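Convert to structure. Protein one:
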Amino acid sequence: MFNQEFVMRQPTWKISLMGLLLCAAQAWAQSNTVRLVVPFATGGPTDIAARVIAPLLSEAMGKPVIVDNRVGATGAIGAEYVARAPADGQTILFGTSSIMAANPALMPKLSFDPVRDFAPVSLIATIENILVVHPSVPANNVQEFIRYAKDNPGKLFYGSSGIGSTYHLGAEMFAHMTKTQLSHVPYKGQGPAAQDLLAGHLQLMFDAFNSAVPNIKAGRVKALGIASAKRHPELPDLPTISEQGVPGYVTTIWIAFFLPAKTPTAVVEKMNADLKTILQRPDVRERFAKLGMQSASSSAGELDTLLKQELALWSRVVKDGNIKPE
């Protein structure tokens, strides 16, 4: 406990020495702390997932790992902070497909380059998107919906969390691949869009697994297909969109670790190995599942390939749909 009387009785040189030691200890603690930068507000699924990982990574690395929420500019503030940080393994980006692939495809003049400025480490989790419609829509599967949409060009409205979001680009990709005309209504967040779907103001949307499932199970919306490469274990009877006549349609959201570019390969490999062990833990898988996520690890090279593929994909979708940023 701090004792002011004790300090005041000490000679000046002792007080100065104590101050220097305190400053040194604080500097050491700061330099020995790893920042896991989350470009989202506290309390959301992505933030909670980061807080599941942080103490386990701290144990593996033998040093403190703190979650640092740096919100703003659709994730660019947090991403730029990591991109400009020293390449010493002490600053990590908890990046998403939206921040690292969709946004750069729509806004090429961002303050960071997702390929040039980062060293991929590993996938962390995936979140599936589900095509859901209001119960009034006369369709019970993807092919029935496509026929209905073609009979009503431009009359079916879908919501998303905003222009350029993965939900928006995913819907535009679906419309392009199925040769349908769907009308976009951008919202400030996926929640308000979902509420308008429930109210019948929208006819459809592509919603994240964790937010769509409760409405599906309650019968408030109809699920037509899941936008993943394979069926989800929690909804095994829901076919993928690909297997319903739209081959290759996959718009899975992913979360991954990125370090600043030029981080030593040994640091990347050690962190990748630590994460692989963490993500195989049953308790981590269970906690992720409650967030609507599936834990997913990868090699650094696999993540690099995925990032480049998605940048190319969303760039093509933006060009084909003539989509402009807000």
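Protein two, convert as well:
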Amino acid sequence: MAGLDISSLFFTEDLLNHLYGELDINTNAPSVQANRGPFAYGCRSPNQITTIVMEGNKHRVLTYNSAQHYYQSERARMMCAPELADKVRRSDQPVTDGWVPDEDYEKHVNEWDRCKVDVAFKANWLKFNQNKDLAYELLLTGNRPMVHEDSYLGGVCWGKSISWPEINRKMLMIIREDLRRRAA
């Protein structure tokens, strides 16, 4: 697996499974909790993720306090409106504040289902690539397996049924390998 060019890749469950299959994971080593501490998708720190977007002919810098803020904000933007996305981005409760009206949800659920894994991967990739301390913590896990023990994330999650615990742990191990290769 070469360094990932996330601008040219669209991440799906199939692509994650392919990239995960290329990893050298020491299955005999003790596992690492993927949903605790700095590895948790909701782990917060001020301005953890920064993006630059074009609005008309001007650039706008957006900051997010967690990968969850980024994910929920993108979901709100795609399914509802930019105003809701901005509210979610600044929210203390991005999951709750990111709920969209049923009629908007029904109109856009298929589009969201198609891209939500891509958004989640890029949110986590930005989190670890823009924060050296978080990247360092992830790299310290070596090639140990990462497990995700959180029953809340199982089952149906805004659309088709997908296993977020499985996806999250694979994303973290793929990002860890990408960080390792970029550092070499």
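The mean pLDDT is 89. The domain at 13-183 is CATH 1.10.357 (Tetracycline Repressor; domain 2).
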